[in-house]
Amino acid sequence: MNTVKTAMLIAGMTALFMGVGLLIGGPRGMMVALAIAVATNLFAYWNADKMVLRMHHAREVDAASAPDFHRLVADLASRAGLPMPRVFVIDNDQPNAFATGRNPENAAVAATTGLLSRLSRDEIAGVMAHELAHVQNRDTLTMTVTATLAGAISMLGNFAFFFGGSSSDNRNPLGFVGVLLAMIVAPLAAMIVQMAVSRTREYSADRRGAEICGNPRALASALARIAESAGRTVNYDAERNPATAHMFIINPLSGQRMDGLFSTHPDTQNRIDALLAMEAGTGGGFSAAPRSAFGAGLDHAAGTRGLRRPGGSVPASRPRSRRGPWG
Questions:
Q1: Which residues are catalytic?
Q2: pTM attached to this predicted model
């Protein structure tokens, strides 16, 4: 199913490229746009993951440079039955994370230093399990290709401002109106493309991530903490590359509270409610995570202030150290 979705996405993006090219430069512009689309699609398939990691200045870590974090991801991947992904850290104070790669054999997961310093070990495990769920569900190819092509469409719209209709033998059929349409429609289309990757994939990744880490409440607590901090901490790399926003576990952009028609993520509270309902429905019956990877387990009262639970409220939390699980 994901292969079909990816093929449909690429076909739709190619048609959109050609349409914008027609508006900018007529038939010749359409053919140039087709050539750009083909080249971009090929590049995105093979290199989009590297490009996205570079956009966010991610640095790869291993068992020597980040032993605890690397071991945590390795244990989670083993629990999920996945090959060990490459592990990256992003020097950014906003707590967040994403996964990328065209398949599980070529996957990578990335977490910010803000995530590693502000969340508990169990919460970090829940977040990384969510990202590994995206890898297992093969969402990462669609997500990464979408990010690259959405950025390319926005770039094509910017070209319209400088080059649209400038040549008399290559004029678009709608004249200056066509150029204006390309300038306005292209960025909007890039936003729609991000939304085309169904928001239901986040619920699916939440559920599978909770199964992998064995603790739905830990992931729910992590979502609440990330959403709260993301609203107060600017992620400058994400702001410069908004086409990658849908890849993160929580929207990293400053306008993230727009949870309506143009949101790239489901409402965070809805996700939290689903996870707490999942825990209530199973009675916490998932197998416990290995102690060597996740410590002594999440204190169910700690870190849950503000979480709502179907049929009742969660006890207030006590203050938690902001040093994170590894200082």
A1: 131
A2: 0.74
